[in-house]
Design a protein that fits this description.
The chain is α+β, with helices and mostly antiparallel strands and 667 residues long. The protein has helices at residues 12-19, 25-33, 36-51, 66-82, 93-100, 109-122, 125-136, 284-314, 333-368, 375-403, 405-409, 415-427, 432-451, 479-510, 515-520, 523-547, 551-571, 573-578, 584-601, 605-610, 616-619, 630-639, 650-666; strands at 142-145, 161-165, 170-174, 182-183, 194-203, 206-216, 229-233, 246-250, 253-256, 266-267, 273-274. It contains 23 helices and eleven strands. The relative contact order is 0.11. It binds ligand L4NZOF2J and flavin-adenine dinucleotide.
Length: 667
């Protein structure tokens, strides 16, 4: 079967891998990206970016100072949003940015991820008509400033205030304390001249909770901060160092009333407050990012899996049999066990990410028609997915990094940077432990609704089902039936964990604790229930994708899905065993099946990562390059280190040589 990545001059080990492929890599890639046309566009964009001299990098970003890297990123962003703007569709933009700029952020990241979405979904018609065309034309750059130095998670306690002054029909925006400074917002420090700022709305001395306001931060002509505004960059971070995450203090800055984002909640000129149809519509920009970040995090894991798999196919080290040749490290079972589940999880996350984006679009449609009934389900799902996927992705990338040995530790592999970027997602858009509790709140309601026989939305329909005995290992050799047996067991486990957590909570309440304290005493169990609910959704979503896939890729997807299910179950064995639903023999069976899956997938491993269709430029990894010619490329990469500009460094001349000389002269 054709693997379309084979080219003359490639590393022969990698070519051999591609020759063993049992499916059409383009078919799988087209399925992943939605259609042949989308795949072709993806390739076209990659090729055009590589050919555009405006995107050329004289030296890799890894060797640049932060300021120079920010400069290079801004320069390329200008090219994207002027020269390229009309050449790509909005949905192609993330790929263009990844190709042209990379993954560490760029001046308009928050403009796109949160500023425009907040204005789109929360500004009333008048404000939208005035500001959106300017924002969309990049006449202004905006960000989303919510988190403060002292509070990020607990939005109710944010300290920045927007106090309504009826006499002038203005809001007075103020930062009352040092820890009330906005701290962290991306692109706030240096790039943005506007921001949507989240403030406590105060009318007649009454605090009406967090609301969003459009605030101009810098002069449009000089880009100097406006009077009353203190703004700057918060300094270097683990990653995202081409992003100017910033600080902001506002000293009684006045803005007109209509700069409150008033599509849902409103303040009339006389100060009358009208609440929104759903209390949390003000939190909409966060739901937007959570719904979209799942897919992009799947892509980060896909990259790591691609690097680790290709490198493991060209790296030869050690022997499996005495006297045999040195083997490709991909032949070691431990290596397969480290990497193949990451390939499967990357596919699973990408599929789930696509489903949740669709669900988000449907929810938005409903809200536009005055119906917010889909929002609770979406909020629970996005909170759970955001938490599970970022954690899984971080662990997965780290496994991939370690699987590349010493070279994985080098920036040349691209893996340290991927890891740094990925784990940011565990924190931003709500710290994972906190967001899992949001999911758990919904599950607790679901448990009650199920007890009362009420109808349940599809994502929690399993709460209303009855458990039979687990059929894992008992359904014979039919793979379709085995998949169903495992999914039913996962459903049982997700249901059992939610019911157990609910009972633990109730027990504490009956024991005399207030609801909230009792909740804190059971949150570890609550979060477990949320994780398994989320992992069940991911498994179901992968299964739906498998069932709807064309026959040409069904077999390889089925192998991958088997590995995914077996790995997830072994990883969650404690939960499967805890109530006796599964027994030790069934876990042993799952492990045996998992080891068989590793062998089954081995001939297709390289081709499965080729189908992620990530160009060399986007992958930005010497180890993961498509042609597998890593050793020469490693040397060429290292030669670019600024420490190699001279043979004798000033640091050596000034300190080490005199020290050695002095020590020699003492002898
Ligand atoms: C197109 C491109 C898009 C994305 C780019 C993709 C990838 C990213 C790539 C690069 C990075 C780019 C950008 C990174 C940007 C990062 C930006 C940020 O981090 S912004 C700051 C984010 N901050 C947070 O997430 C804060 C987390 N905290 C909260 O959300 C809230 O404080 C809380 C934890 C939800 C609690 O809020 P509150 O106290 O008000 O509410 P309760 O817990 O009492 O709940 C009451 C009730 O409301 C329900 N609820 C809460 N939130 C929501 C919501 N958002 N929607 C719907 N419903 C909500 C909750 O479930 C309760 O329901 P009930 O049980 O009463 O029925
Ligand atoms: C890369 C990056 C980009 C960011 N971009 C933006 C941005 O563009 N705009 C913006 O406004 N913000 C941004 N942020 C800020 C980010 O949203 C917050 O840092 C995040 O929401 C976590 O809040 P926190 O820092 O207050 O953590 P904290 O709440 O202080 O968390 C510390 C610990 O306390 C625990 N904890 C807190 N509350 C609870 C609870 N109720 N129950 C159990 N445990 C709890 C957490 O689990 C965690 O272990 C960004 C952050 C990062 C890292």
């Amino acid at each position: 079967m054709p693997n379309r990545c084979i080219r003359p001059g490639d590393n022969p080990d990698l070519t051999k891998e591609r020759e063993t492929c049992t499916f059409d890599t383009d078919e799988l890639a087209a399925n992943l990206y939605g259609s042949r046309r989308n795949l072709e566009r993806r390739r076209e964009i990659s090729q055009k970016v590589s050919a555009d001299p405006d995107f050329a990098d004289p030296i890799p970003h890894e060797f640049l100072s932060r300021e120079k890297a920010v400069d290079a990123t801004a320069k390329k962003s200008k090219v994207i949003f002027q020269k390229w703007k009309n050449l790509v569709k909005p949905e192609e933009m993330p790929h263009l940015v990844n190709e042209a700029v990379g993954i560490q952020g760029f001046p308009l990241a928050l403009h796109h991820a949160m500023f425009l979405p907040s204005l789109n979904s929360q500004a009333d018609d008048d404000l939208a008509a005035e500001i959106l065309p300017r924002a969309k034309a990049y006449e202004i750059i905006g960000t989303y400033a919510q988190t403060e130095m002292g509070h990020g998670t607990n939005l109710r306690e944010l300290e920045t205030t927007a106090t309504y002054d009826k006499t002038t029909q203005e809001f007075v925006i103020n930062t009352p304390t040092r820890k009330a400074m906005k701290w962290w917002p991306g692109n706030l420090g240096k790039m943005s001249n506007y921001a949507v700022v989240c403030c406590q709305l105060i009318i007649d001395g009454k605090n009406l909770g967090p609301h969003n306001f459009l605030v101009q931060l810098r002069c449009e002509k000089t880009h100097e901060p406006l009077p009353g505004i203190t703004v700057g960059d918060i300094g270097p971070k683990i990653a995202y160092n081409t992003t100017d995450n910033g600080f902001l203090a506002l000293d009684n800055v006045r803005i007109p009333r209509r700069q409150m984002l008033m599509k849902h909640a409103k303040v009339s000129p006389d100060g009358t407050y009208t609440p929104p149809i759903h209390a949390k519509l003000n939190y909409g920009a966060m739901v937007h990012v959570r719904a979209h970040m799942i897919y992009s995090h799947g892509h980060l894991l896909a990259r790591a899996a691609a690097v680790a798999t290709r490198y493991s196919a060209v790296r030869r080290q050690g022997r499996i049999e005495n006297g045999g040749p040195e083997v490709q490290i991909l032949d070691y079972q431990t290596q397969q066990h480290r990497i193949f589940p990451q390939i499967a999880r990357a596919y699973a996350i990408l599929f789930a990410g696509q489903e949740v984006r669709d669900q988000y679009a449907k929810t938005l449609e409903g809200i536009a028609n005055g119906q917010a009934d889909l929002l609770p389900d979406l909020h629970a799902l996005t909170s759970g997915l955001k938490s599970v996927v970022t954690f899984m992705g971080g662990l997965g990338i780290e496994q991939c990094r370690m699987s590349c040995g010493g070279h994985g530790y080098s920036d040349a592999s691209g893996l340290p940077k991927l890891y740094g970027v990925q784990i940011g997602g565990c924190t931003y858009e709500g710290e994972n432990m906190v967001m899992l509790q949001q999911t758990a709140r919904y599950l607790m309601k679901g448990v009650k609704w199920a007890e009362q026989g009420k109808s349940l939305s599809p994502s929690i329909a399993y709460l209303g089902k009855k458990s039979g005995k687990s059929l894992i290992g008992l359904k014979g050799g039919d793979i379709t039936r085995e998949h169903e047996a495992i999914l039913e067991t996962l459903e049982h486990t997700a249901r059992r964990l939610a019911i157990d957590a609910s009972q633990l909570w109730e027990k504490r309440i009956k024991g005399g604790e207030c609801k909230e304290r009792a909740w804190n005493g059971v949150t570890v169990e609550m979060n477990r229930a949320s994780r398994v609910y989320t992992r069940l959704f991911m498994a179901r979503s992968f299964h739906r994708r498998l069932l709807s896939s064309p026959s040409s890729i069904r077999s390889v997807l089925s192998d991958l899905f088997s590995l995914y299910l077996h790995y997830e179950c072994v990883d969650m064995a404690q939960h499967l065993l805890e109530d006796g639903h599964c027994n030790g023999g069934q876990i042993q069976y799952l492990k045996k099946r998992l080891y068989e899956d590793l062998t089954t997938l081995r001939p297709n491993a390289v081709s499965l990562v080729d189908s992620f269709e990530i160009s060399d430029r986007e992958l930005n990894s010497v180890l993961g390059r498509r042609d597998g010619n890593v050793y020469e490329a490693l040397f060429q990469w290292a030669k670019q280190s600024e420490l190699n500009y001279t043979d004798v460094l000033p640091a050596v001349k000034n300190y080490m040589m005199p020290m050695m000389e002095e020590n020699r002269s003492k002898l």
